[in-house]
Each structure stands twice: as structure tokens, then as C-alpha cells.
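Forwarding these from the shared drive since the link keeps breaking.
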Amino acid sequence: MRTITIENPERTKEIERSLIKKFRKPIWRNFTKAVQRYELIKEGDRIAACISGGKDSMLMAKLLQELKRHGPVPFELVFLVMNPGYNEENWKLIQENAGILGIPLTVFESDIFNIVEGIEQSPCYLCARMRRGYLYSHAKELGCNKIALGHHFDDMIETVLMGMLYSGKVETMMPKLHSRNFEGMELIRPMYMVKEADIKAWRDYNKLHFIQCACRFTENCATGNTEKGSKRDEMKKLIAHFRKTSDVIEQNIFNSVHNINLNTVIGYHKGDMQYNFLDDYDREKGEQI
């Protein structure tokens, strides 16, 4: 564990108070609601809160820390940071923010950035997969049974739209998953119901500055957007347009994958099972009108 020095304890307390007071409804309540609704944390869990250094993972770590201190369910926390080859400035900022937020880091090194540097096809995909594997592996070595990632509400609805528009299927980013490669491990997303706009508002209210890009190859970009021009960036713009025309569309996209009517679905699959509405169409004659 990397020892941290809290240079301004009162500022740390103010940041913590902001989560419970000013941002209680948009952040704290939605965070705890997701934890309860999807049963993300159970008594005796040992969770690795995986921190990349960005606003999302840093806020997630702080929320989990507060829940551990004040929540009704006892569980253990490790604040896990992998250094895949950050530049000196970004690495320093991550550690400084941990001090400001009062988060004790458990750090390990990897050479992922060097490995993917020469990859021409889908380097971002490979990097993400490798980082996930390293995090699972080190979390398990530390006795954890879960890793927590900082994906939020906007990530989820963007995934729904991308699947429909570019992959021709209805799917979503799940609030929790069993690991296929690491037995007994789960992935959880505690900020599943927290909107990115509220994360930014919390960051700005507390005058915090986080790294924009974890990736070495895009870390100097002006906006910090590693996916500019990508399909996900298109979804962000599309949702921003929806937001201007209606205040319910975002929530309806989110709700749609919680409320699927199988009687009106042409086909679906789960594992090896495939279903088409024609399979039992004639048996249900007269029931649908």
C-alpha cells in the first residue's frame, strides 16, 4: 500500500461533505440505489476499487470509501492502481489527488503501454483487455473477490445505442458480471446510475483536476477525449441532441433494457439457446389481440 499524506484534512472533509449534502440526490443516492438494486456489495466482500486516475474512478473510490465507513454492510476495500506506463506528470497528479481525497493507494507496475505501442489494429481494445486481466489477477492475489470499475449511467446508455445502431442487437453494459477467466471473481459498476454531468459538477465544485487520458499516446490531447471521432463519441453527440429536445429520453433508454417485453421481440438468445417468435406463434393463436 502506498502511504499518503493528507496535506489539508479540512479540504478532504469538505469534499466528503459535498457528497452527502450538495450532491446527495444526484450522486450519493444514485450510487447507493445502484448498490442495493443490483446487489453489488455483500457482507464479507473484499473489493478492489480500480483507479485509473480519471474523474470517474476517483469519485467511485471515494464513494466506496464513504459507504464502507457509514454503510450498514461490512466489507473490505483495496484502492488498486496499475501504472501501465504513465508519464511523470500524470503519475504525480494521480498520487496528489489520492492525497487530497484521503485514498490510500495500492500500486503495481506493468508494461502494457510498451506492449501495445507497436500494435496497429485495435490497440485500444487490446490495451483495455490486458489492463482488465492485470487488475483481476492482482486483485485476486490481494484476496479480493470483486473489482469495481468507474463506468457510469452515460456509458451504459451509449452502449445500448451503439449495439442497436452499429451491431444490430440489443445489449447493454451490465451492472455486474462473473469473470470467465478468474474463478470466483466478479466485476461491479457501482456508479451505474450516476450521470456524467453530475460527476463533472462534483469535480468542478470541489476544484479538482484529474488526468484526462490514461493512454500515453493521447495524453497530450487538448480535450482528453481518447475516442474523438469514434462510435462512442457519435453516441455522446446523439444523446446530447436528445437532451435538448426531451428530458426523458436518456432515462427511457436506460429503462428500456430493464423492461423488455418478450412478447414483442422477434428473436433473442441466451447462451446456446436461440428463440424466434415463430417457434410458438401458432400455439398462441388468439392470445395477442
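-- next protein --
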Amino acid sequence: MDPSHYIKKIQGIFFEESTITLGTGHTQKTQRVKNYCQAEQIDDEKVKLHFLGNEGKPTGIVIELSCDEFLKRYTLDPHFRIKTKDEGDHDRHVAIAEKHRERGENNSAEYEYTNALKIDPDSIRANFGIGTLYMEMGDTAKAREVFQKLSEIDAIFEEENKHLFNEFGIELRKANMVDEALANYKKAITISPGDEHLHFNVARLYYDRKDWVNALEWLKKALGINPLFRDAKNFEGLILKEMTDQGITLGTATPSGAADQDHADA
């Protein structure tokens, strides 16, 4: 059949989202990544994909997929743009830093994160990376400085950084930055109100402060989202038992408030 008879319907920049694992052991974390390609429908049944690298340039890898499979896996990105040289250099430094962290090469990782931050001081990935690196190295003071700065960067609460909300709150808690952790979780909840884990972690922060009322209230919200959330059910039982052991009832317990002394992470 004459190819000129086909009407091209699929054309543009598309991406497939996947999950990758970074780090090992207690530092292990998952991250959502987007793999981009330039796609063009070549006939009624097939689409040709030219995969793109980190800077939006063709990698030379080309495959063909059926139209049905392509449409199931790929999403059009009408706002895609090629990264600038600085953006590409920043991403390269962060990627190298993460590889050094995986190998336990902390000094080299710090060096690469620092190079990335010279290019973009407000980089979410580089700030979060170097902050958690300092925590792993036991330098809590430096970590607190980085996390304080990061908590003031509004971009961390954008939808594309959603995967960081819980992780960032956990790191703030480890650094004993309880007020900042609470603010992080509550702001994140306005963006992802259906995430039961965010509500659970708010409850945990209030529990650290012996604020039984608020801890139970946030657990109730978590269970309202997911009634089968086992950790929340167990935590609720633990709090009620501790209150009973101390002769405290919900009628006599009062919220401790944000002004209470922060409690260190267990």
C-alpha cells in the first residue's frame, strides 16, 4: 500500500514514566523518572520512537511500537523543551553525586552536589541530596542549615516534586526540626490531600510531643482515607494504651500546641 495514503496522527515529544531505586540499605529510596522520545506515526499500525537524552538530544536509539502499545505507555508533553547547557551540567553533577553516595564516597558526593548548587542554588534535587548526605555523615548542624533553606523554597511543594514530601518531612524530623516538619507535611497535604502517609506522619510528630489529642485526630484522618492502613491502626492502639497506663482520658487530655519543646527523633 502507498505510504502516502496514511494520515499521520501521532507526532511530538512524549514520555514514559517509570520508577527507579536509588541507594542501598537504609538510604534506599524510589523516584519517579520520565524517559522522553520524539515519536512519529509511520502508518496505521506503527509508531517510530527516537529516544532523547538528558539534554533533549537524540541518543541514536530508535525503536518501533504498535500504535496500541504506544498509546498505553506514552503521554504527550506539549511543554517539553531542550535543556540549557547549565541545566544539563547541573543534572550531570547531581547524577554523579548520587552514584558516589551509592558507593559510600561521601566527600566526592558532597563535591558534586556543591558543583550543582553553584549552577542552581535553589535546586531541589541538589539541596535535598546534600542535606540527606550530611545526615548520613552525622553532620546534623550542616543538614539543618540546608533543610531550613529547602523548606523556604516554594518549588519543593510543586506537583512534580510530590515524591519528596514524605522523605523531606522524615529528614526534618531526624534533624529535630519538628516545626519545619509539621509545616512541610501540612503544606504537602494541601497538594495531596488523599495521601494517608502524610497524615500518619503528622500524627507521629504530635505523638513525639505527647500531644495525644492531635496525634489521634490525624490518625483518624489517615484511617478515613484508608481504613485498612495497618500502621495507623496499630499506632492508634499504642497511643490509647499509653494514655490508659498514665490515667489520661480524651476528656482530660489537651493539645500541647506548637510552642512545646521539640522532641528528638527516637
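The first strand starts at residue 11 and ends at 22. Strands lie at 11-22, 29-41, 46-52, 58-66, 75-76.

- D.
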